[in-house]
Amino acid sequence: MSKSESGLKLLPVVEQGCCAPLVAEPLTSEQSVDLAKAFKALGDPVRLRLLSLITSAQGESCVCDLTAAFDLTGPTISHHLKVLREAGLVGSERRGTWVYYWPRTETLSQLSGLLSAPGLVPGS
Question: Residue 13: its pLDDT value, please?
Fold first, then answer.
């Protein structure tokens, strides 16, 4: 994996899913509604960081570990995790007192595949 100028790891794009890149063909109305929910969920810095923590764990993340990474209340973190779950970006399972989260790779692949723009010249 390579690193970008900001120091974030860049993941390889997996070309699969329901959606062709935007440059290949327009989205249907249904596709745009479904995908907008996921992009809207990622539009919040807390949710983006939560997703990053969950995906970088390479397995499952306990809500107890996720909450400790923020200076926010448990209910606030739970709300953000609910938004990510409802957008299809993470899956979850309750085990006793704790809830465990994992990335929904098929949704993440759809989003990254949608935004891939092979053949376009940067800045044009």
Answer: 43
Half-sphere exposure for 40 (CA within 13 Å, toward CB)? 10
Question: Which two structure tokens, joined as six digits, stand for 89?
Answer: 């970006």
| Separate counts of helices (H) and strands (E) for the chain | 5, 5
56 vs 64: CA distance, rounded Å = 16
**3-class secondary structure for the chain?**
CEECCCCCEECCCCCCCCCCCCCCCCCCHHHHHHHHHHHHHCCCHHHHHHHHHHHHCCCCEEHHHHHHCCCCCHHHHHHHHHHHHHCCCEEEEEECCEEEEEECHHHHHHHHHHHCCCCCCCCC
Q: What are the pLDDT digits (tens) for 93-120?
A: 999 999 999 999 999 988 888 877 665 5
Cβ contact 57:50 at 8 Å: no
Query: Once rounded to an integer, what is the mean pLDDT over residues 20-38?
Result: 79
Kindly state the average pLDDT of the residues 10-38.
Answer: 68
